[in-house]
Write a structure and sequence with these properties.
alpha+beta; four-stranded antiparallel beta sheet; 4 strands; Alpha-Beta Plaits
């Protein structure tokens, strides 16, 4: 049996009118992950922002960050669900195990060399 790996997804959602509609959009974003056996660690909205360029006739988008755990074999299903979700303008999924914080010792060494 494979173990679940940590992933991070940043999705740009179409800006909906009310908070209830945005909550529904986020629920539709999280639902496929839970349905296939994934576990949501954190779900945070980064708010509404102006896009650098127009995407699918949208000038603004609501950025939402999901951190979740999922079996690697199920990742393609999550990507498929996000592509089919009409509320998602763009998304990016990263493997969190490959992203390490910079060591604090090197930051202290860089400041002492000045």
């Amino acid at each position: 049996m494979t173990t679940n790996r940590p992933y991070e997804a940043l999705a740009i959602l179409k800006p909906a009118g009310t908070d209830a509609e945005m909550a529904q959009s986020v629920k539709l974003l999280e639902e496929p992950i839970r349905k296939i056996g994934g576990q949501i660690d954190t779900s945070a909205s980064w708010g509404r922002r102006r896009l650098a360029y127009r995407i699918n006739h949208q000038n603004e988008g609501v950025y939402h960050l999901l951190q979740f755990r999922l079996a690697p074999a199920q990742l393609d299903e999550v990507k498929r669900a996000m592509r089919l979700n009409e509320h998602v303008i763009r998304f990016l999924i990263l493997n969190r195990t490959n992203h390490h914080a910079a060591p604090k010792a090197s930051a202290a060494a860089a400041t002492s060399e000045r």
